[in-house]
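[agent] plan:
  1. take the single chain provided in the ticket
  2. run structure prediction with default settings
  3. attach structure tokens to the ticket
  4. add a short note for the reviewer (M.T.)
[agent] executing step 1
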Amino acid sequence: MSNEIILKAENLYFSYDDDHTHSLNGLSLEIRKGQKVAFMGANGSGKSTFFLCCTGILKPQKGHLSFQGNEYRYDKKSLLALRSKIGIVFQDPDNQLFCASVYQEISFGILNLGVSPEEAKKEVEQIIDYLEITPFRDKPAHALSGGQKKQVSIADILVMHPDIIILDEPAAALDPKHTRMVNHIVDQMTEAGITVLMSTHDVDYAYAWADEVILFHEGKVLRHGSALEVFHDEQALSQTNLEPPAVLSLFETLCRKGILNSSLLPPRNLQTLERYIEESGSPVS
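[agent] step 2 finished; step 3 output follows
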């Protein structure tokens, strides 16, 4: 994994109500290129506000943000360039989709970057095929299912070849089938080397997926580390109203009972835990 710092926040403050309360309250963090980072914390802890600052939609009242070593600038040209490199998929795709058809929706952003119509058409066709959007490419976006809207909102960003993609609760309000579909798309993005920042309340998914986990609390970073380090920190989890991942809790219980050896590497998913049990030869009562 790269050690290059692609995104850096230093002592960020942001308030929606004239400094009476702060959604961001001295927040500092660094994100390395190519990482899969899960952002977690109670509602109102500052995650969405931070994401909006990352894309330049909001401007911190204090502090500094840097992308690829360059501090943010907020003139129109700089923001357009920034948003071609850092894209966000909102929790509710209806806040993102506004064109008459799916094809026009996916074309909008890349055409705004000044790409020629011929090149834009090529890029849009590729992303439509890549994300399996062809069956509904000519439909109006408002007529799509929740899962299809999420596919299109992700395509909006991917067609511009971003370095970072931000997903704010990507599986919110989706059924299990479409949740699996979105998770598969996320895996494809990370395999392509895109840095993925994801807000989620699903500790089991975050533990299995993320390279690093960042816990937000009252507008600042409470804990930042590997998934295993963070989810072993019971005090930090309690402060952010989170429970340990089920597979980690079960593994520790089986170790305490002597069914598994505590020297084993803690499993990141249920499949690994099942393999440990099978290899131990011990029945689980």
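[agent] step 4 note for reviewer: The CA atoms of residues 237 and 243 lie 6 Å apart.
[agent] ticket updated
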